[in-house]
Write a structure and sequence with these properties.
The complex is a heterodimer of chains A (130) and B (635). Chain A has 130 residues and is mostly helical. Chain A has a single domain, classed as Cytochrome c-like domain (Cytochrome Bc1 Complex, Chain D, domain 2, Orthogonal Bundle), CATH 1.10.760. Helices cover 47% and strands 0% of the residues of chain A. Chain A has 5 helices and no strands. Chain B is α/β, with parallel strands linked by helices and 635 residues long. Chain B folds into 3 domains: 194 residues, 3-Layer(aba) Sandwich (Rossmann fold), CATH 3.40.50; 176 residues, Rossmann fold (3-Layer(aba) Sandwich), CATH 3.40.50; 187 residues, Thiamin diphosphate (ThDP)-binding fold, Pyr/PP domains (Rossmann fold, 3-Layer(aba) Sandwich), CATH 3.40.50. Helices cover 37% and strands 13% of the residues of chain B. Chain B has a 6-stranded parallel beta sheet, with helices on both faces. A 5-stranded parallel beta sheet of chain B has the order 8-7-9-12-13, with helices on one face. Chain B is globular and about 90 Å long. The chains are: A mainly alpha (130), B alpha/beta (635). At the A-B interface, helix 3 of A face helix 13, helix 14 and helix 18 of B.
Chain lengths: 130, 635
């Protein structure tokens, strides 16, 4: 693949992701149903989130705060297709989780887990944060 | 040397120095950087032994006592330099100096701090110097002691920290006791740390010691400040002072910091005033409250956004911005920036390492720094080469008055209108960022292990009404570092094992000001040399240590995970092999209690934090150290 083509593809991918975020930001703050997401096992996903090392950077419930951004709870959760792409071929320093080491089903389990993480308490209800 | 000559020399050294030792020295006072040169009084006569021992040359009189060993004079010299404390793990190569410090010197100024490891001694001196702005004395025991001390000396070197290490050694092979003293002696004792110390010397006489000690102090305090090593030969320490020694202590004068030349500084000011989107990156740009106030005046005159790496501004100052501001900058001024290239670029740590610039083409990059010029070759702590459009080798803090004057001279009314708008926009952006951070803190609020955001909020709620100081590891949007001393300015090579003793040293420096020092203590760092806790308890050094106990060398867990992912193998539950600190979990509270500290934990329920912190602070306010073992999220 030529350098130019690689650049065009990479730029297109970045634009697609940015477009996704832009669209997602405009949506209402309600959890969206992801029609293309495969069925996942929440319990399995919760265990995988720790055993596969996701929690190392995104913390135990995907809340972020460390080197990895917050993943959950997130009303604007990435579509599964984009989520999978980011995990398989990260655009930053995140280690790649290829299909060889993490199956699509395992990925779907983690995705399902992240979608069930409950909302945090409202900031106005926490005296220490006022 | 022939035996007869050796014997003659022995007699000369040990046998007939009666009347040679010097008496006490007048009280010395450190004025404004200059110290008077005192003269040494005549010594009393030493006691003689019962007579020649079996096998000694006929007629020899053995000398068993002295009232004036060389190390007494060394104490005079060290007292003249104004040391408050000397941190040491005891060692026979400086036994004479040790005894002189506690008996002749009265164990005051400097007072001995008993340390359980030389790494702790040096780390304590590091933390103390960050707060006090001057060196602590450290004594280290010859070969093995300096080897123990070496890593934290490197931490201090990278941190640009003044430090004065006195190293015991026995150079004269004929004077060494058989056995271990040979193993604890070196030809060139300071050699192993020469790559990361600023200066060292191996004096062969007491006048030489005095001159080199004063010189070493001056060099350590000249910018960039760094550790120095002075070898105190054991023979020089233990031998009585010669009658005709004519000892004096040279005057110490500290060097004024160098500031930038007017022409270059005016050009910096001109570029900043003319810029549409200037940004200042502030590394270790200030060293004092006065420096902080000067820096505030400078950035407010320009209403320029500041990427503040080391709390040069009060942490809630509205001009503080994030690194993202660099993307749109047309002029960037760095003041004592440790890794300038790294600030302007991003390196992607994947199998193929790629870099990208974080700035736009044509940006003017300006630099004022004295601390970040490479001093040595071997250890690569000077980062990648950054190209500059203008660079001034000068101390940023000392240059600020000239820079402020130049900026104010160049500002017109047209500039002022644009500048005020810029400042207003920055203040609004900062308020938005704080609001976002406040909401982010709610995520994982009730998690167990406890989130760092929750921990930060809980500790802040208990310390905010105190006169507090601490590191920045706990800092969030709430923590108000409004004075220079709030932040302990700890910078190092990130060699693990440095943080705990540095916290003890910082707390010691804050003790006389009655400040509550708070340390966020990582579990991995604590286990390198936990004996520093005992030192804190023994010397009643009050501070609150709150643990960030993620039960791992967590950064290394991430590195191993990353390697496994790249190689597409072993990504599940393998990264903890060799990196996790579990099975068994360490009971840090019990460990601290065993060394005399008040301690609680492990705390896993976030709702237990507040009362535990209150109890611990009550102990600290009584003048004792306290530790809370808090089991936390990974990061």
């Amino acid at each position: 693949m030529s350098g130019v083509l690689r650049f065009v593809l990479a730029a297109t991918a970045v634009l697609l992701i940015l477009e996704h975020f832009a669209v997602a930001q405009e949506r209402a703050a309600q959890p969206t149903v992801e029609p293309t997401a495969p069925a996942g096992n929440v319990d399995s996903g919760k265990k995988l989130f720790v055993s596969a090392g996701c929690a190392l950077c995104h913390n135990g419930e995907g809340q972020g705060g460390g080197p990895g951004p917050r993943l959950a709870p997130n009303p604007n959760m990435l579509a599964f297709k984009v989520f999978a792409q980011r995990v398989r071929e990260p655009i930053n320093a995140m280690p790649p989780y290829t299909a060889k080491v993490m199956s699509d089903q395992q990925l779907a389990d983690i995705y399902a887990f992240l979608r069930t993480v409950p909302k945090p308490p409202d900031v106005s209800t926490i005296p220490l944060l006022k | 040397m022939a035996d007869s000559e050796k014997d003659k020399d022995l007699v000369g050294r040990r046998g007939f120095l009666k009347g040679a030792a010097a008496g006490g020295i007048g009280t010395l006072a450190m004025g404004t950087g200059a110290i008077a040169a005192p003269q040494v009084a005549a010594p009393p006569a030493p006691k003689l032994g019962p007579g020649p021992a079996e096998g000694d040359p006929v007629g020899r009189v053995e000398l068993l006592t002295t009232d004036r060993p060389g190390s007494d004079f060394m104490v005079d010299v060290l007292k003249s330099l104004g040391f408050e404390y000397v941190a040491a793990n005891p060692g026979s190569s400086f036994r004479s100096l040790h005894e002189s410090l506690i008996n002749y010197g009265g164990n005051k100024a400097p007072e001995l701090l008993t340390c359980c490891h030389e790494e702790s001694s040096v780390g304590i001196a590091h933390g103390y110097a960050n707060v006090e702005g001057k060196p602590m004395l450290v004594m280290a025991h010859s070969t093995v002691g300096l080897q123990h001390a070496a890593m934290n000396i490197y931490n201090a070197w990278v941190g640009r920290v003044p430090m004065f290490v006195v190293l015991g050694n026995t150079l004269d092979a004929t004077m060494r006791r058989p056995g271990v003293e040979w193993k604890h002696s070196a030809q060139d004792a300071a050699a192993i740390v020469r790559d990361y110390t600023k200066w060292d010397d191996n004096p062969v006489s007491l006048p030489h010691f005095a001159e080199s000690a004063v010189r070493a102090y001056r060099i350590s305090m000249a910018l960039p400040r760094e550790p120095v090593v002075l070898v105190a030969d054991s023979e020089l320490q233990e031998r009585p002072v010669a009658k005709d020694a004519n000892l004096r202590i040279p005057k110490l004068t500290l060097d004024a910091p160098p500031w930038g030349d007017a022409g270059s500084v005016t050009e910096v000011a001109r570029l900043l005033v003319a810029a549409e989107n200037p940004v200042v990156i502030a590394g270790g740009a200030t060293r004092s409250q006065q420096g902080m106030e000067r820096f505030i005046e400078f950035v407010e005159a320009l209403q320029v956004p500041v990427v503040d790496q080391e709390n040069n501004l009060p942490s809630r100052h509205p001009l503080i911005t994030s690194r993202a501001a660099l993307r749109n900058a047309d002029v960037i001024l760095g003041l004592e920036v440790e890794d300038f290239w790294g600030m302007l670029h991003t390196v992607r740590d994947q199998l193929e390492r790629t870099t990208r610039s974080n700035t736009r083409p044509g940006v003017k990059v300006l630099n004022i720094s004295i601390a970040e010029s490479p001093l040595r070759t071997n250890y690569q702590d000077f980062q990648r080469y950054q190209e500059f459009d203008l660079s001034i080798t000068a101390d940023a803090e000392a240059t600020l008055p000239v820079l402020i004057e130049a900026v104010k001279r160049l500002l017109t009314s047209n500039h002022r209108a644009a500048i005020q708008n810029r400042g207003k926009a920055l203040a609004e952006a900062q308020q938005s960022a704080i609001a976002r951070e406040r909401v982010e803190a709610t995520y994982g609020w009730n998690s167990s292990p406890i989130s760092l955001a929750r921990l930060a909020a809980e500790v802040w709620a208990q310390v905010k009404h105190e006169d507090w100081a601490g590191g920045r590891e706990l800092a969030n949007f709430q923590w108000d570092y409004d004075k220079y001393y709030r932040y302990d300015h700890f910078r190092s090579a990130q060699g693990a094992g440095g943080r705990l003793p540095a916290a003890v040293g910082a707390a010691l420096a804050h003790r006389k000001h009655g400040r509550l020092y708070v340390n966020l203590q990582k579990d991995g760092d604590l286990m390198y040399a936990p004996g520093a806790l005992w030192t804190a308890a023994h010397h009643k050094i009050p501070f609150l240590s709150v643990m960030h106990n993620n039960r791992a060398y967590h950064q290394e867990v991430m590195h191993i995970q990353s390697m496994a992912n790249r190689r597409e193998r072993g990504i599940f539950d393998r990264a903890g092999i060799g990196t996790a600190i579990t099975e068994p979990n360490i009971d840090y509270a019990k460990m601290a209690q065993s060394m005399g500290l008040y301690a609680e934990g492990p705390i896993t329920n976030p709702n237990d934090l507040g009362p535990a912190i209150q109890r611990a602070i009550a102990v600290v306010k009584r003048g004792e150290p306290a530790l809370l073992d808090v089991v936390t999220q990974a990061r």
